[in-house]
Amino acid sequence: MLQAGEGIRVWVKDNKPSARLKIYCHEHLVTYVDRMPGLGFGENNNFLYAQIKSECGFQQGDYFVVLNPDLSIAPETLLALIEQMKKDACALATINLYRDQEYLTSDANIRRFPTLFSLLRMTIKRSITKNYDKKNMRSACHVDWASGAFLVFDAMHYAALQGFDQAYFMYFEDVDICYRSQQLLGKGVLYYPQFKAIHLAAHKNRNIISQHAIWFFSSFMKFLSRRYFLYQRQKPLSASNWAK
C-alpha cells in the first residue's frame, strides 16, 4: 500500500469493512472509509472522488490516483510521475507495472482497445485484447488503455469525464474511461516506462465458471455496445457539475 506523506494523501474505501484494516489505516495516516460497502470498482472510485471533493476540495494542479490495494509503489516514484505529468500537460497516465518484487515479470497493464473481432481473438490467443510490447517502449508514449490497477488523472479531467461509468460493476470500466478520454476529450493515456511499481494481480476472471468471469464477459459486451453505438456518435464532453 502507498504510504501517506508530504504531498500525498491516501484514502482507502473498504468494500468489506474490517476493524483490522481500519486500525492499520489509522496508524499509517490513511483515511479509512467503510460507508456503502459492496459497490463496484468504478462506483467505489467515484464515491471516493466525491468524498475527497466534499472534504478537501480539488484545486488546479491536483491529481486523483486510482490505485489497487494489491499494488505497491514508492511515494517518491508517484511524486516524480506527477511532476513529469505537469511538465507534459498530461491529463491521464500510467506506468510500467511488474508482477514480482525483482521487476522481472512484466504486467500486461497497457493494451489495445477491444474490437468486434476480439471474441475471435479470445478463441485463438486466449486473450480478448492485445497487449503492447513494453520491451520496445523506452520513452513516454500514448497507449489505448491502461489497467485500473493504476491510473493517474488530473483531478479536473476526472471531473470532465464524469468519473467511471457505474454501469460496469467490475472489469472494462478502465477500458471505458480511457476510451472516453481519448474519443470524447482528445486526451489519450500517456505511458511512462521509466516509472515502476509492483502489481500482484489475482486474475480471478480466468475461471470461466466464476462470478468474475460472468462480470468480465458482460462488461466486455457492454463496452463494445457503447463504443460502436454510443461514443462514436456522441458529441465531445465538457466539464460537468463535478468540476464545480
Total helix count? 7
Which range best describes the helical content: under 10%, 10-25%, 25-40%, 40-55%, 55-70% or over 70%? 25-40%
The ordered H/E elements are EHEHEEHEEHEEEHHEH
Shape: globular
Mean residue pLDDT: 90
- From the N-terminal CA to the C-terminal CA, the straight-line distance is 31 Å
The count of β-strands is: 10
Main β-sheet description: 6 strands, mixed
Given the helix and strand composition, which structural class is it? Answer: alpha+beta
Computed Rg:
18 Å
Estimate the strand proportion. Answer: 15-25%
pLDDT < 50 stretches: none
Describe this protein's structure.
With 244 residues, the chain is an alpha+beta fold. The chain is built from seven helices and ten strands. It has helices at residues 19-27, 41-55, 75-87, 118-125, 155-160, 173-185, 211-229; strands at 11-13, 31-33, 63-67, 71-72, 92-98, 110-111, 141-143, 145-146, 150-154, 189-199. Strands 3, 4, 5, 7, 9 and 10 form a six-stranded mixed β-sheet that branches. Strand 1, helix 1 (19-27) and strand 2 (31-33) form a beta-alpha-beta unit. Helix 6 (173-185) runs parallel beside helix 7. The longest helix has 19 residues, at 211-229. The model has no long low-confidence stretch (mean pLDDT 90).
Using brief descriptors, characterize the structure shown.
7 helices; alpha+beta; 6-stranded mixed sheet; 244 residues; two-stranded parallel sheet; globular
